[in-house]
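Ticket opened by: R.M.
Priority: normal
Category: complex prediction / small molecule

The reporter submitted a protein together with NAI and asked that the result be attached to this ticket for the collaborator who will pick it up next week. Submitted input follows.
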Amino acid sequence: MRPSVMRSAAQLLRRRNYSSASGQQARKVAILGAAGGIGQPLSLLMKLNPLVSSLSLYDIAATPGVAADVSHINSPALVKGFMADDQLAEALDGADLVIIPAGVPRKPGMTRDDLFNINAGIVKNLCTAIAKYCPNALVNMISNPVNSTVPIAAEVFKKAGTYDEKRLFGVTTLDVVRARTFYAGKANVDVNTVDVPVVGGHAGITILPLFSQATPSTNALSAEEIKALTKRTQEGGTEVVEAKAGKGSATLSMAYAGAVFGDACLKGLNGVPDIVECSYVQSTVTELPFFASKVHACFAMCVVYCSCYLSDFIM
Ligand SMILES: NC(=O)C1=CN([C@@H]2O[C@H](COP(=O)(O)OP(=O)(O)OC[C@H]3O[C@@H](n4cnc5c(N)ncnc54)[C@H](O)[C@@H]3O)[C@@H](O)[C@H]2O)C=CC1
Ligand SMILES: O=C([O-])CC(=O)C(=O)O
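Result attached by the on-call engineer:
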């Protein structure tokens, strides 16, 4: 074979195998609820993530079509779709990261708590399977009400004997995404430079954007304007639910936020330093057992195996 042909084949292989090209290990990611309003664009975004080598798409409906569609994108992640209950084991087997947007969304007039009865059961069943088939995976919980689905997941994992509080995350990134966007617009600063920590929970007044800690800081905003920004961030979900007028809640911005948080988890797993995201996690920051705070992705070495996880409140 001509040397130039061999060189280009090696380059192609290196591009396909991100781990050998960059020193980063590529990972298996499973998305449960992959055919839904969030699941589909989230699957697309995770397919584009170079840290994903294998993308497992699971839903109780329509997954083959979504998987076939996403699989045609010319990025390295290998895509497989799973639908029936008996395919959940294979979907989860060996997953490093499981992202859960499975469940029903709100309609106008509902609170996130109104979703509890249906989504609690869905989350319970999916987490029971996670405990069985990929007990060491990081779990990103998107399904609402996050303030309740995360504690439910924790209880399921405790019962199964697999609970590790450093591996369970309620995804509150959309609150941060909104706070950044609204702040940048009001303060007239470049949104790419903005960060706003959002702590507390993921429902109404439990969403606490800390505009006092926003960067870049600005004196240009009045107390009244900060109050209005806070209210808009807290009611961002409802703003979308009402605008969609019965056709669901935030999907595209949530898929973006889920992809940002998923990427942070994959970077954390690969030991990338200085990765910080807000997330709803088990907490000792307040008297509440779970509380969204800044969470630091750190690399922890174990005697038996190497692992790393998001941990350490740095609020
Ligand atoms: N954490 C956050 O910031 C946000 C959370 N959400 C929540 O995300 C959830 C999903 O929202 P959408 O994607 O808009 O809903 P959707 O109804 O469009 O999609 C949900 C998907 O879950 C699937 N599903 C239902 N039961 C399942 C099971 N047992 N196993 C696997 N898949 C199952 C459905 O077939 C459907 O494809 C809702 O609970 C919503 O409230 C939505 C926006 C933001
Ligand atoms: O408001 C909802 O029901 C969906 C959600 O959590 C959000 O958009 O923040």
